Amino acid sequence: MPTLSQSLLKNFLGLCLALASLSSSLAHADRIALVRDPMESLDLRGSSVANAETEVFIGSFIWTRGQASERLARDSATALRRGKRVRIALDGALLRFCDTECRLQLRYLQGLGAEVHVYNGLQLANWRNLLRPWRLLRRGHDKIHLVDRKFAMLGSRNIWDNSFELDGLKLMDLDIAIQGESCLPDIAAYVEEYWKLTHPWKLPPLFERDRKRLAELLEPPKIASELAAELPGKWLDVGDRARFVWDARALEKDGTNHIDFLEAWFSKIPAKGRLSIASPWILLTPRTQRAFESLLANGTELEFFHNSRLQAEYIGGVRGFLDRTYPFVRGRKGIEVYFWNGLTLHYKAMTDGESSYVGAFNLGPQSESRNSETGLFVQDRAFAEVLEREFQALREGSDSLPDVDIDDYTRSCASLFAWGSSKVF
User: Fold this and answer.
1) pLDDT class for 131, splitting at 50, 70, 90?
2) pLDDT of residue 409
3) Looking at residue 422, what is its pLDDT?
4) Considering only CA atoms, which of 354, 358, 359 is closest in space to residue 380?
5) 257 and 225 share a domain?
6) pTM of the predicted protein model
7) Rounded to the nearest 10 degrees, what angle do helices 208-217 and 100-111 cross at?
8) Do 152 and 256 reside in the same domain of the chain?
9) 131 and 169 in one domain?
10) Does the N terminus or the C terminus of the chain have fewer Cβ atoms within 10 A?
């Protein structure tokens, strides 16, 4: 029979172990914030880059001229002048969006020490892909912002003014900001593997007049405030209930891809629940149709949020929806389709009320089988409630499916664009 001192010692050791476990759990806990406001997103990105302690990684499908790219170039120049490492990775097929002025900015950053790389480009440096032409269809569709391996942003925003509602086609996008030590090591590991598959973008030297002009244009801004102060009241502590989702295919590895992950998630949604999905491209493949058939058989309601045909910039997506998805959803009990009539809907998000996904994955064949996609899966009811408010705003500003049609002229004009877009996005 243990003595009193032995019992006290045992209890004390148990308490120490419990405190150590709790401390470890808190040390690896994540906190996240949903960022809908475009200026809030741009300010958060810029301030994190300008305040970088060691390194910055910016990965984007598109980087084009405008206020957004100029702001990030200025903040990147600030980090480089302070001796920090800055890496920028862009998709090879969409370099046509990067006009002369934008290329000059990137070349100026290279002169300060920035590393600018291209994923799966068509340049001679990527000649090996000519021996495996199927790989040329792969696109670096990721949108990753990683600073010091301590702060990250994932979502649907590219580095162009449209994603920040600054000019031209205004896109409705979502970001998810992440701090902590649970997901960030996985994001950082993915970035390193992804970087290995890119190659340097060799830009021509700058003329002296351009160098001087850019030196004035990209002068250091005032360093912004601490990250926590950038999103007052929006951070949610989610512990270790957030998971980074990526495509093993993009890194030329065996493993789980987005579609595998989504199938596993959908199979666990409770009976008679509801799954809400927003995507600018909803082109159901046989695989996604089977997954949704299983949900319907389980009594789960499906909600799809898509763009209106009035948004001509995304008419290819609407055309593809009517051709490839409309036959599946038309007249189906348990399916509701909404056509959003506000800003062009560009974000990709899903929630079942308990778990949620925010990222770059479009519901279509290109994202399913070829693109490099990233996102965050969060098993947290409080975050699901935040995302549900976004979906409620979409419901209130949308037309239902029976009220939307597309005429023969629109069909004929959109056919070629829809086919081409499905090969890229």
Assistant:
1) low
2) 38
3) 47
4) 354
5) no
6) 0.85
7) 90
8) no
9) yes
10) N
> Would you call 258 helix, strand, or coil by DSSP?
helix
Last residue of a domain, one of 202, 230, 258: 230
In this model, does residue 229 exceed pLDDT 70? no
**Residue 162 CB neighbours (<10 A):** 23
Helix (H, G, I), strand (E, B) or coil at 56: strand
Q: Count helices and strands (H / E) in the chain.
A: 14, 19
CA 368 to chain centre: 15
Distance CA 201, CA 73 (A): 16
Q: Name the domain count of the chain.
A: 2
Let me know whether 396 and 262 are in one domain: yes
Mean of pLDDT values over 354-379 = 91
In sequence order, which residues have a C-beta less than 8 Å from that of residue 217 and are 6 or more positions away? 70, 74
**Range in 28-32, 44-48, 289-293, 358-362 with the lowest mean pLDDT:** 28-32
Question: Do residues 183 and 160 share a domain?
Answer: yes
User: What pLDDT was estimated at residue 414?
Assistant: 45
252 CB-near residues (< 8 Å, 6+ apart): 197
- Are 267 and 142 in a shared domain? no
Q: Is residue 1 in some structural domain?
A: no
The whole domain housing 415 covers: 241-424
State the greatest distance between any 2 C-alpha atoms of the chain, in Å, as a whole number: 90
Task: Flag whether pLDDT at 404 surpasses 50.
Answer: no
Please, where are the H alpha helices in 82-140? 100-111
Give me the pLDDT at residue 132, please: 54
Q: Which residues contact 148 (CB under 8 A, 6 or more apart)?
A: 52, 53, 54, 55, 56
Q: What confidence category does residue 153 fall into, taking pLDDT thresholds of 50, 70 and 90? A: very high
For the chain, what percentages of helix, strand and coil (3-state, to nearest 5) are there? 45, 25, 30
Q: Is residue 366 part of a domain?
A: yes
Q: What is the CATH number of the domain that holds 79?
A: 3.30.870.10
Average pLDDT value for the chain: 81
What share of the chain in percent tops pLDDT 70? 76
Tell me the one-letter amino acid at 371.
N
- 3-class SS at 64? coil
Q: Is residue 188 part of a domain?
A: yes
| Same domain assignment for residues 378 and 249 | yes
DSSP-derived pairing of the beta strands 301-307 and 274-278: parallel
